[in-house]
Amino acid sequence: MTPEELDQIAEAERAAQSQFPQQVRVCVAAGCVSCQSQSVKEALDHEVEHRGAQQRCRVKGVGCMGLCSEGPLVSTNTGILYQHVAEEDAANILDSLEGPAVARLVCPTDVPFFQRQKKIVLENSGVIDPERIEDYIAAEGYAALIKALTEMSPREVIEQVTKSGLRGRGGAGYPTGLKWSTVSKSVGTQKYVICNADEGDPGAFMDRSVLESDPHRVLEGMLIAAYAVGASEGYIYVRAEYPLAIKRLRNAIRQAERAGLLGANMCGTRFSLRLDLRLGAGAFVCGEETALIASVEGKRGTPRPRPPYPAMEGLFGQPTLINNVETYANIAPILRNGGDWYAQIGTEKSKGTKVFALAGSVKNTGLVEVPMGISLREMIFEIGGGIPDGRRFKAAQTGGPSGGCLPESCLDMPVDYESLVRAGSIMGSGGMIVMDESSCMVDVAKYFMDFCMTESCGKCIPCRVGTYQMHRILTAISTMSATQQDMTMLEELCDLLKHTSLCGLGQSAPNPVVSTLRSFGEEYRAHIEDHKCPAGVCGQQGNGEPA
Amino acid sequence: MPSYVSKPTPPNQDKRWKLVDATMRRQGQQARGLIETLHTVQEAFGYLDVPALRYVAMSLRVPLSRAYGVATFYHFFTLKPAGEHTCVICMGTACYIKGAPQLLRAVEHDLGIAAGETTPDQKVSLLTARCLGSCGLAPAVVYDQDVAGKVSVPGLQQRLKQWTSPDC
To answer: pTM for this structure?
Structure first.
């Protein structure tokens, strides 16, 4: 594939699309699909055929448009967004392309949820058809790859990524340029690139959306990365629980191979990459890089001590680059527009944008991409639309089971890597769960500990036994049978797990406990001394242990 | 006596073993393809039993203990056959906040089984998932292969009734 050929495909696709004065886009990502959006699309196709309007009107399946709670979502090229669309609405919607909008279905878009977002990772989501490579190419897809292969050296590529200030979006926030540089300098007979798509944090679905809505974007990022570090084989490790993402990825890989954008001697250069999928099998710990590597090798997903780091000795003992889906999704725009462009967005230490999955007790649940540094208050009350049913904000949980709960006093802090750590939580992969006064913080801490306990791989004692002990104590607290000694033991265990666990799962398992003790200590005291649960959740009636 | 020299034979004549063989071949008959192969077995047969593990282990030249270790390590794999219908309740954070525990309790009460078990008449299996990624539609439940969002207790109970009624 030469630059000229790529341009031709882009031109042809754009010309083909402009033939249709009318376009209707239906979200076919998992969220809307579970609300029967596939039937809506079929109904629209049917209606178009019925009217003989196939030459005039094009109905396209697209990726996630963000406002998942109001699905199925349908947008038109007249700039209208419709929500809660049902099959029966097909005729009305087609009518509205030539007349007034269907008022009862209109979803207002001049609200912060849409206006305050800055889409880089999600720029194509909801716009292009994730199952057609031509659509991606027409949206400047693969231009960055061709530019890198034909005009830049690997070192120059790494330079741009370093300049951008991009940090790993999987949660740890490690400088991406530095990681790429380390792998590129490592010595090995065969280097690998791996995409960590094992999004295991409960409450996080950013990676799933990107994979279902714009899979080629991730492929392009991995290709550029492989070129930069000198890898010739790559794996995308996807959770088995994401069948639609798996299907779209397989499709995308096949299409890219056929187009000569993936495979041997790409674009007439000596660079070759073989990409394959690897399925996870329901182990949260496999999101940890060394456990992930073990899983790709066909073994039980248990971590190993580091150093040596995967960048030096990873998959099959060779230098391996592992990055998160969202990290790769940022690479193509960075190369297209330059690292400096990216560095202008965000804060001094946290550059660029971040995709958040806003869920829980908030009006607008779904996916949002915002510049780093936005305040928590704006995220929750403006973009999120605030707390429904007249309830009060209690806490915002970020970082999943490795994170913490931010209380009301933190509402005006900026959302970036350092500030979140200072406030007792972490950025994590991007899940943000809003909680109101009906949630008990002790119960939440117990829920996360239960999760860590079940997902512990069992290799090291601090985590295997420690999470069980901590869960036991948290259960005692929530059933009003704990003592002050239990509290002392709980705090000691927090310290023990943090400092002696083998991997991040055990090391960060205490975080929800530590953060809730810090900001909601009064609730713990009420459970232990007053035998009362202020939120009315724990106690004799119980609220059901998660299995 | 198992032979590691000649090609192992599948546990029975079922044609679905061809799918499993195809996966192993695609993976180059290598140990690293173990998880992919077990996925194919589970997809084809619904669960992994010991003869299946033995066959895969011998074909990929790994000890049975390793195949068994992998099968039992990962939550996705099951060594027990599932019921006619499966009900998977998501216990992710967003779903938990939005009432998943109540849904779980309702099923446990109505069917008399705990998560991970199947009803005695083999009609319904109850499972929990740590997160399905449909958090915008919490609480979410998977009825067989379909994901349903914003599930209420009455809605869930109605579906269970449909499944367990005599004419189903």
So the answer is: 0.92
